[in-house]
Amino acid sequence: MNKQVRQSKIREMLHLHEVGNQHDLIRLLEEAGIRVAQATLSRDCSELGIIRSKGLNGYRLALPEENPGNIIKGLVEVEVLSIQSNEAVVIIKTLPGRAHGVGSFLDQLKNSQILGTIAGDDTVLVIPVSVAQISQVISYIQENLSKN
Amino acid sequence: MNKQVRQSKIREMLHLHEVGNQHDLIRLLEEAGIRVAQATLSRDCSELGIIRSKGLNGYRLALPEENPGNIIKGLVEVEVLSIQSNEAVVIIKTLPGRAHGVGSFLDQLKNSQILGTIAGDDTVLVIPVSVAQISQVISYIQENLSKN
DNA sequence: GTAATATATTCACTTTATTGAATATATATT
DNA sequence: AATATATATTCAATAAAGTGAATATATTAC
């Protein structure tokens, strides 16, 4: 269970040094007192979204730039208080003043089963393309606006 | 691995219903298709910081009173990208779709030097009561919407 | 193209997390 | 206080995550 520590160290390493491949990273980590197999490192890179791209000094392992979408997803998960529905629409309750942001995030996902959203102050109304799709829309909203 | 789902549902339940004790919560969860033992629920409550407090209708399980204002302040600090101004107005740039939330937060602070705000998608315009107060308004915004 | 190098995956094993039944402790009611 | 009710903990079993060695696949170099 050094995983957290190790991955944190990997991030740090890639910020500080130019690392060309996983084997070099293994060596650097070993110098820092962390011994790890290449298989594990491969999985770490995958989980951290690290990719190997070619720069001026040859190849290097690079962390992904945090794109706004992922930041906002984190915000939305905090803002959403409950997700309810009847046969025709879904109602999302949010922290006060946060409905617009949640609705905007949902809009930007461009789910074809959602006809549109209307946001008030702390409530977002979601209209499905057809009432027949309501349960799928609920699932979709739960998956994308909640922590799980 | 239903733990995430279950704890999320518990949060929702406590927002929607008044729940007096863990046994009632067990029943509610069962109605929602989630069967769980009391021991597990006890651990969930502990992890979620849920406490049993006495209100008007007797006891109820309550999520820790996170003052919404403080939560939102944290969100706003992440959402605000820049604060700029000319002699007459202040422009706050935000993450895409987050301007309304930021403007709403600013409104709710009810600063008497601010005449009003208008929010677009990623921009909030702030109008001071008088252009003479612009520098104080800038300071106020910086203090309340930024981390430092 | 082939060889060399780099990364991903499979397999087997170990460690950790999750869970419910039973039980103990704590809290409320009278 | 005694009793009822609610919650926490222990124990044992199960499920899930993490790991390295070996191997397969993919990528780069020539």
From TrEMBL, chains A, B:
The UniProt entry lists the main location of this chain as: cytoplasm
Q: Which GO terms describe its cellular component?
A: cytoplasm
Cite a single Pfam family from the UniProt record: Arg_repressor_C
Q: Does the keyword Nucleus apply?
A: no
Gene Ontology molecular function: any one: DNA binding
Q: Name one GO biological process term.
A: regulation of arginine biosynthetic process
Instruction: Print the keywords alphabetically.
Output: Amino-acid biosynthesis, Arginine biosynthesis, Cytoplasm, DNA-binding, Repressor, Transcription, Transcription regulation
Instruction: Kindly list the places in or outside the cell where this protein is found, as annotated in its UniProt entry.
Output: Cytoplasm
Q: Give residue ranges for domain Arginine repressor C-terminal.
A: 79-142
Q: Which residues form the Arginine repressor DNA-binding domain?
A: 1-66
Describe which pathway this protein belongs to, using the record's wording: Amino-acid biosynthesis; L-arginine biosynthesis [regulation]
The family database entries (InterPro entries) matched by this protein are listed as: Arg_repress, Arg_repress_C, Arg_repress_C_sf, Arg_repress_DNA-bd, WH-like_DNA-bd_sf, WH_DNA-bd_sf
Homology family: Belongs to the ArgR family.
What's the stated role of this polypeptide? Regulates arginine biosynthesis genes.
Q: Which HAMAP family does its entry note?
A: Arg_repressor
What name appears for this protein in its UniProt entry? Arginine repressor
Q: Which gene encodes it?
A: argR
